[in-house]
Amino acid sequence: MTTLAAEAGSGGGAPAPRPPVALAVPRSLDEALALLAQDGAAVLGGGVGHTLARHHRAPDRPSTLVPVAGLPALAGVRTGPDGRITVGAATPLDDCAKAAAIARVWPVFTEACGSVATGRIRRLVTLGGNIAAHDDAHDPPVALTALGADLTVRAARGGSRTLSVPEALRPAADGGLRPGELLVAVTLPTRPRGAATGSAYRKYLVRGVWEYACVHVAAVVGLDGEGRATRLSLAVGSVEGGPVAVPLDGLLGGRFDADLVEEAARAAASGTRPYDDVKGSAAYKTRMIGEFSRRALTEAAHRARGTGHHAGGDR
Amino acid sequence: MSVPLRFRLNHEDVEVHVQDPGAPLLDVLRHDLGLTGTKSGCEIGYCGACTVVVDGRAVPSCLQMAGLVEGRDVQTVEGLGGPEGLDPVQRAFVDKAGFQCGFCTPGHIMALRALLDEDPAPDEERLRETVDGNYCRCTGYVKILDSARAAVASGAANPDPGGAGAREEER
Ligand SMILES: Cc1cc2nc3c(=O)[nH]c(=O)nc-3n(C[C@H](O)[C@H](O)[C@H](O)COP(=O)(O)OP(=O)(O)OC[C@H]3O[C@@H](n4cnc5c(N)ncnc54)[C@H](O)[C@@H]3O)c2cc1C
Questions:
Q1: CB A195, CB A222: distance < 8 Å
Q2: Residue B29: which domain range?
Q3: pLDDT tens string A38-62
Q4: ipTM associated with this complex
């Protein structure tokens, strides 16, 4: 055994930009909840967000981090007896992207998770950490918004509650995840029987290689035997208040054709407010939201009809 | 105040007293352990220069919280090679001149080492995906990919099949 000890306060260390945190490793879910009820405590998922936050000058830094990756309740992908898929909040995004059970039912979620950064980073980032970061530029929440997923949340006091996306993504005062609450799992809906359903995620990268989206859109389309739309869900991220679910109920019952897609794309472009940044001006992004809504809806409908995979071409 | 952190580093058990378990593994490697083979580039997960192998998988050590490696297996570029000479991946980079300034090289080598430990015969797409996580600002990646292909061709799969890399199966 090699022992390498750093003297307390020795000059050799890196300049510490923030006071040290303590890691309190819980042995059970209840213990985790009790730890999280204490002042200054925060959940530690993959730790990517917390590690990056060292570069920020945030005034409210957690003093204790509670790692949850070892808790069985938060681990892995399971299909319940009702056919609903539940993903533990500590599941790395790489595992979400590779889960065949998810890809079969909701490719929109598979694609959103698989579009995050690189495989190397997806192995670290957890689904719960990605969602709880409340960042409108994150990919998985856009897919979860189109799907209308449920989040199971626990707190030391107040027991368990179920929140639905996108409400769950709002600030705590508006019904979202509260400080001290632990996101335990994400449950995806079943695919309705009787209607052909397809889903797709489209992420537009201006540089053509991995990064945060310029524009990203998730679509779920349900079609009846006559080709009429029985479900149209479209969610857009990287916009104000995002991810935003675009209301398309007025188009339900109509034939799913190019005109319907055009109207839906127009609704997405006019109903969302992107912002200017290095990836594009708001005006440019609005046009791209229209274009990528078209592509996501068209692909979702192809999948609903079983007319094959029309991947790529988004760069 | 410092806290002890115990993990396996380059095939040896180590205990290091860290000031802050919330610090990135990168800082602990370079500053506390003096292992400066792992390079510090962007520090925000983009450039890949700091890539190390944790439990057989390549990760950017700037995003890997040090406290979370307790009890785990970490390999850095210092752990490659040995009395017999360079690791076959390092050998391939030398033979194919897969570097210019060399700053990104340890990251490339560790990422490829992890890939080959997991899949001794990766196809071209997997090689490209792996290289995708590492920025090189000198070359056009041509010689880096040549080196990667040469490493595959030389049968650079882990000489120690019981090692950490052999544990993780790609799903
Ligand atoms: C180079 C780079 C590129 C990236 N690219 C993308 C991208 O393309 N798309 C994308 O979506 N994201 C991207 N990300 C961002 C990444 O998804 C986020 O940083 C994510 O929040 C990290 O998750 P984590 O599990 O590591 O989080 P942590 O740091 O552990 O946690 C993040 C936050 O969530 C809280 N939290 C964690 N788990 C839970 C839980 N179970 N319950 C309640 N709260 C919890 C934490 O307290 C903290 O506030 C990128 C990051 C990097 C570094």
A1: yes
A2: 3-79
A3: 999 999 999 999 999 888 776 678 9
A4: 0.88
